[in-house]
Amino acid sequence: MAETNAPTGLSRIFARKSVAQIMSENDKSELKRTLGPVNLVLLGIGCIIGAGIFVRTGNAAALHAGPAVMLSFVVAGFVCALAGLCYAELSSTLPVAGSAYTYSYTTLGEFAAWIMGALLLLEYGLAASVVAVGWSGYVVSLLGDFHLIIPPEFTGPMNHAKTLADGTVITTVFNVPAFLVTLVLACLLTIGISESAQVNNIIVAIKVSVIVAFIVIGGYKVLTNLPELSQNWVPFIPENEGEGKFGIEGVLRAASIVFFAYIGFEAVSTAGQEAKNPKRDMPIGIIGSLMVCTILYMLVAAVLTMMINYKELNVPDPVAVAVDSLGPQWAWFAMTIKAGAIIGLTSVILVLMYGQTRIFYAMARDGLLPRVFSRVHPKFQTPWINTLVVGVIVAFAAGMFDINVLGDVTSVGTLAAFAIVCLSVIWLRQARPDLPRGFKVPLYPILPILGILSCCALIFTVEKKVLIFFVQFLIGATAIYFVYGMWNSKLGKGETVTGHEPPANELPHKID
């Protein structure tokens, strides 16, 4: 039940949903509890694999870490594990939809929840744009294998210099493939998808098979040509050039880039209302998917930087570049890898866009966003206006901006969100020590505090212009809260939150 006495004055920004209230909203859900730990691990793997391995690894290696990008994955994996443990505790204590947004609303208060919602726009929305740009790169490469050429001017961001294979330098106008795939998928999400969870399992199997095949065949290529290819690892950590370019500083800078690759595990927490035994299964899903994907990332990074000199990997499709180097006799394998990457990236775009619409849906239901974002289509039973708005935002971002800028902003937003999650664990332990917890962060409070500090440390490794944009974004988000959200909040008015989640035909495990 909602609070009967509405908070007044500035106390409204610290107003919190009670645990009993969110549990009540959770009990109203019509979603079926059908997901076990294996499904949840596969859900996490399904979202994690794709964006990082197929897209951002090459950028991190080429621009900042060189072959030592493997160490960057270790650093990012460690930071992510700290956040993952905090997510596991919160998801086992508050097994409800809304993910980090709901956690913040219950612990730190309404304003913190609003800021979290803004950060999740970067974590989900812009991440979908990054993956769409990577998808475009692999599609262009695969079509090129069949001698179908998209004019290169329409395969990159606005006003961006691009060097072609023959040395010609052109200026790209707009990334048309990335723009179109996002709009198509937004329309697909609007209509709704009613496939079973087995679809996700099949796509995950395809992606994992592609990655394992790349590791095995690429590893064989490396071992049979070790004297020659080992030179690509010399030096393993290139000399520091300043401003986050190589050296130990570059390894840490690259860690903030590849951190982008780990955002998938958080999607497991959005399925809290569908887990058979959330207090047991959700920590398994989060930590299990994180461990599997960390190992795969490091192996791919090792093979990739050994096969191709790191200086040549500043592309949206680094794995495609690597498999093309195998020679014409491996053309079938190269096309298979690219096709698998395209399938995998398509599913990731869907899941990320789904996650963004769900956050907007929850915020609109709470009154923090206009009600139109929670309006469900009478026929398709999906939040259709919400989905189309998200699709347009993601599409234009993918078409207009450089993948490195998009990725950096996404990483900063994600790191900030994870820091708030760690802080939420500390607050909830102090405020409600009586709550039953299916999982507890070990070494409390050391690990949550370390999670906050490590997330903040990685944030400050990014370029100054990205930090400036991030601060401006937060200022704009804060202004919108005080102009609209604060005055329309249902909790602030003492109203009961009503409405159900849209039916299960649009759940993430059904589309990834």
Could you write a compact summary of the structure shown?
Keywords: Membrane, Transmembrane, Transmembrane helix, Transport. The chain is mainly alpha-helical.
SSE layout:
Layout: H1 19-27, H2 37-48, H3 51-65, H4 69-93, H5 99-107, H6 110-145, E1 160-163, E2 169-172, H7 176-191, H8 197-224, H9 226-229, H10 247-258, H11 278-307, H12 318-324, H13 331-365, H14 384-400, H15 403-431, H16 446-459, H17 464-488, H18 490-493
Antiparallel strand pairs: 1-2
Helix pairs in contact: 2-8, 2-11, 3-6, 3-10, 3-11, 4-10, 4-11, 4-15, 4-16, 5-6, 5-15, 6-7, 6-13, 6-14, 6-15, 6-17, 7-13, 7-14, 8-11, 8-13, 12-13, 13-14, 15-16, 15-17
Mind explaining what this structure looks like?
This protein is mainly alpha-helical and 512 residues long. The protein has one domain (33-510): Up-down Bundle (Amino acid/polyamine transporter I). It has helices at 19-27, 37-48, 51-65, 69-93, 99-107, 110-145, 176-191, 197-224, 226-229, 247-258, 278-307, 318-324, 331-365, 384-400, 403-431, 446-459, 464-488, 490-493; strands spanning 160-163, 169-172. It has a two-stranded antiparallel sheet. Strand 1 (160-163) and strand 2 (169-172) form a beta hairpin. It starts with 18 loop residues before the first helix and ends in a 19-residue tail after the last helix.
Low-confidence stretches: 499-512
CATH superfamily: Amino acid/polyamine transporter I
CATH architecture tag: Up-down Bundle
Shape: globular
Number of strands: 2
The largest pleated sheet is described as: 2 strands, antiparallel
Which CATH class?
Mainly Alpha
GO molecular function, one term: amino acid transmembrane transporter activity
Subcellular location: Membrane
Keywords: Membrane, Transmembrane, Transmembrane helix, Transport
Protein name: Putative amino acid permease YhdG
